[in-house]
User: Which sequence fits this backbone?
C-alpha cells in the first residue's frame, strides 16, 4: 500500500508539474487551453473554470494539456477561438510551450534539491567533525561525542575527514590517543582501536556529520548538484546506448517499488527520490525522439532554422510510430519489473 500511495504521489507531482509547465507557457503566449488533464482514459472527475476543463482521468499515467488547434476531438462545451490557436503561433513561441513541461520538471528538481540542502544538509566529508557514533566500536567507549572535532591522532594533525581513517591505518599499536576539540576545549581520548582483519583496517566507529546550507548557498549548490546529476544521467544513458554498460531502466512497477522504499526510509529520502525522478523526466523528455517533447522540438527547431514548416501530416505519423514504440518499451520494461519482483 505504501508503494502504491508513494507511486501515485510521485506520478501526480511529476505529471502536474510537467503539464503545468506547458499550461503556463501557453497562457503566457495567449494560446487557448481547453483542458488540463491528469491521467489518461475516461474522465472520473472534471470541473470547468475560466473556460478550462480541469479533469482527473481513470489511469494515473501521464496527462495532457489540450490547446486550441490540437487534433484532439473538441468537446461540445468548448468555445474555440481560432485567433488563439497553437499552430498559428510563431515557431519560437511553440518551442517555448513544448519545452515548458520538461523545463518545469527540471526547475522542480532544482528547488527540491535546494530544500534538501537547506533543510537536511549533506554529509560533510571535509571537516573532521564527528557526526554520529556507531554502537559497539571504540569511539563510544573512549568518550567521543557527536560534534567533537578531531585535532590529532597519536600526535599526527588531522585537518580533513579522510585523514582520520588514513592516519589510523598507519598506527602500529592498538593503544591510540585521540585529541578532540569540544566546546572550545581540547580533550585527550585514549583507548584501544584494534585492527579488523575482516575490514582490513582500524575502525574507530564514527561517521561524518551533516552540513546545512544557507538559502542562498542552497540555491546555487542545488543548481550545481542538478548539473552534475544531469551529466551523470546523460553519460549513463549514452553508455547504455553504446553497450558500454548493461541497460538498467525501470517502468511504472519499478518506480512504484523505489518510491515505496524511499518513503519507508523517511521524508528526506523521499524528497531526494522525487528530485531525481523529476530531473530524469525532464531530461528524457528533451531527447530528440518521436512522441517525446524533444522530438517535437526537433521539427520546430528545423522550422526556425529553415523558415519552412515540416508537413504536419508526416510529422503526426512519425510521432504515432514513436508513440507505439514507446508504449511497447514501457510494456517490456514493466514485464521485466514484475519478473524481478517474482524472483
Assistant:
Amino acid at each position: 500500500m505504501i508503494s502504491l500511495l508513494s507511486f501515485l504521489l510521485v506520478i501526480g507531482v511529476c505529471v502536474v508539474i510537467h503539464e503545468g509547465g506547458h499550461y503556463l507557457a501557453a497562457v503566457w503566449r495567449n494560446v487557448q487551453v481547453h483542458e488540463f488533464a491528469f491521467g489518461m482514459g475516461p474522465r472520473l472527475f472534471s470541473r470547468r473554470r475560466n473556460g478550462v476543463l480541469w479533469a482527473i482521468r481513470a489511469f494515473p499515467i501521464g496527462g495532457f494539456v489540450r490547446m486550441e488547434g490540437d487534433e484532439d476531438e473538441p468537446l461540445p462545451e468548448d468555445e474555440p477561438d481560432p485567433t488563439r490557436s497553437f499552430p498559428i503561433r510563431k515557431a519560437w513561441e511553440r518551442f517555448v510551450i513544448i519545452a515548458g513541461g520538461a523545463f518545469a520538471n527540471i526547475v522542480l528538481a532544482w528547488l527540491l534539491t535546494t530544500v534538501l540542502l537547506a533543510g537536511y544538509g549533506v554529509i560533510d566529508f571535509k571537516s573532521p567533525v564527528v557526526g554520529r557514533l556507531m554502537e559497539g566500536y571504540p569511539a563510544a567507549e573512549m568518550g567521543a561525542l557527536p560534534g567533537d572535532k578531531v585535532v590529532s591522532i597519536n600526535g599526527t594533525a588531522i585537518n580533513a575527514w579522510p585523514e582520520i581513517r588514513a592516519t589510523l591505518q598507519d598506527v602500529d599499536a592498538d593503544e591510540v590517543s585521540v585529541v578532540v576539540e569540544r566546546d572550545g576545549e581540547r580533550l585527550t581520548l585514549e583507548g584501544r582501536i584494534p585492527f579488523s582483519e575482516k575490514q582490513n583496517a582500524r575502525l574507530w566507529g564514527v561517521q561524518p556529520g551533516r552540513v546545512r546550507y544557507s538559502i542562498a548557498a542552497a540555491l546555487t549548490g542545488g543548481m550545481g548538484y542538478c548539473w552534475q546529476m544531469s551529466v551523470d544521467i546523460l553519460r549513463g544513458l549514452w553508455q547504455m546506448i553504446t553497450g558500454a554498460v548493461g541497460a538498467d531502466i525501470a517502468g511504472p512497477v519499478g518506480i512504484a517499488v523505489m518510491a515505496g522504499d524511499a518513503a519507508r526510509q523517511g521524508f528526506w529520502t523521499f524528497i531526494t527520490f522525487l528530485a531525481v525522478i523529476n530531473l530524469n523526466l525532464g531530461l528524457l523528455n528533451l531527447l530528440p525522439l518521436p512522441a517525446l517533447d524533444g522530438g517535437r522540438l526537433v521539427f520546430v527547431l528545423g522550422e526556425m532554422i529553415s523558415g519552412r514548416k515540416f508537413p504536419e501530416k508526416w510529422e503526426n505519423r512519425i510521432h504515432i510510430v514513436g508513440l507505439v514504440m514507446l508504449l511497447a518499451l514501457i510494456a517490456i520494461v514493466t514485464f521485466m519489473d514484475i519478473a524481478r519482483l517474482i524472483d
About this structure: The first strand starts at residue 33 and ends at 49. The chain has a mean pLDDT of 86. The chain has nine helices and twelve strands. Residues 57 and 69 are 22 Å apart (CA to CA).
